Amino acid sequence: MRGITVNEIIAWFVPRQPADVRETLEASRDREERMKLQQALQELGVQTAISEDLEDLRLLLSRVEPALLIADLNHAAAWAGWSLVSDLREQGKRLTVMVLSDGRYGEEAAAAFEAGGNEYMVKPVHTGEFKCRVDNLMRLTGRRRGLSSLLKVDGLVLDPTRRLVLRDGTELKMTPKEFDLLYYLAMHLGEVCPREDILKQVWDYHFHPDTNVVDVYIRHIRLKVDKGHKNKLIHTVRGTGYVLRAPEGAPDADTNL
């Protein structure tokens, strides 16, 4: 099924460095290490969203609930972001935090755990160990469950376990029936879905020639999914039904975790 991938999102906080620090040898090594770790995350089937300041991180976490937050910190205990983490947890959001630090194990690690961290690694990080620890954290917290049913079509992500819809990182509010219809179209990506089949599979009743319920719901989800986007995903096949189609050049199916 063209254009569908399985993935989760990991938020990664990397404090923006002053201009006079960005070109140092140490900063260059940090960037190279981060690229290697991001590649390891891709191999796990997850995407990363980088934030360089707390306001950007706050906006990101208000839109999505990441599988994990990685905080790249020099002094973990002094990080101002712990209050944000605490606030989100009090609001009921599940937020697991892994700290990457230039410090050492012992007091620095203990301070990170006491502040709210769930995992701690000292840089430079061994890529294989990092990959295993991230995978283990997500499995222990249940964020790897149901991934086989998580769908991504271009920038559209559907998670049936949480009945969550995102497009380009922004959550789209859907009614239960709107979600069912959109998920049905995504499961049949590139296939024309006749109205009578949609009625039978989504509404659980046989075709009534005088009903326009499918057309009404399609209009509703089009406004939410496609409005304002150059690439339109939902298309009408006149006289037949509808098809959800990935744009040209979208990646092929990838469900390797």
From TrEMBL:
Entry superkingdom: Bacteria
UniProt entry keywords in alphabetical sequence: DNA-binding, Phosphoprotein, Transcription, Transcription regulation, Two-component regulatory system
Matches recorded under InterPro entries: CheY-like_superfamily, OmpR/PhoB-type_DNA-bd, Sig_transdc_resp-reg_C-effctor, Sig_transdc_resp-reg_receiver, WalR-like, WH-like_DNA-bd_sf
Alphabetized Pfam families for the sequence: Response_reg, Trans_reg_C
Sequence ranges assigned to domain OmpR/PhoB-type in this UniProt record: 148-246
Boundaries of every Response regulatory domain copy: 23-138
CDD domains: trans_reg_C
Gene3D superfamilies with a match to the protein in the record: 3.40.50.2300, Winged helix-like DNA-binding domain superfamily/Winged helix DNA-binding domain
DNA-binding region: 148-246
Residues modified as 4-aspartylphosphate: 72
GO biological process: regulation of DNA-templated transcription
GO MF annotation list: phosphorelay response regulator activity; transcription cis-regulatory region binding
GO cellular component annotations of the record: cytosol; protein-DNA complex
PANTHER family linked to this entry: REGULATOR OF RPOS, TETRATHIONATE RESPONSE REGULATORY PROTEIN TTRR
Protein name: Response regulator transcription factor
